[in-house]
Design brief:
globular; 71 residues; mainly beta; 8 strands
């Protein structure tokens, strides 16, 4: 399952062990665990794969934030 932001064309979805972000080229991306530590930060390419352990994460792309669950 993925979530699209129809205003920007950004798609955030999860697969086993990773967060996939598409359509975010040039936007700032930050992935934060609920405990508050930063898992990833940087400027996105058109397609990003961020490998993480299973859990809940907050994914910020530009000004929009998603809550995702990685299994």
């Amino acid at each position: 399952l993925g979530v699209d932001d129809v205003t920007t064309g950004v798609n955030v979805r999860t697969v086993s062990g990773a967060i996939l972000i598409n359509g975010a080229e040039g936007l700032e991306v930050e992935v934060v665990a609920p405990a508050g530590y930063r898992v990833f930060g940087g400027i996105a390419g058109n397609s990003e794969r961020i490998d993480v352990t299973a859990g809940i994460y907050f994914v910020k792309v530009g000004a929009r934030t998603w809550n995702v669950i990685v299994k």
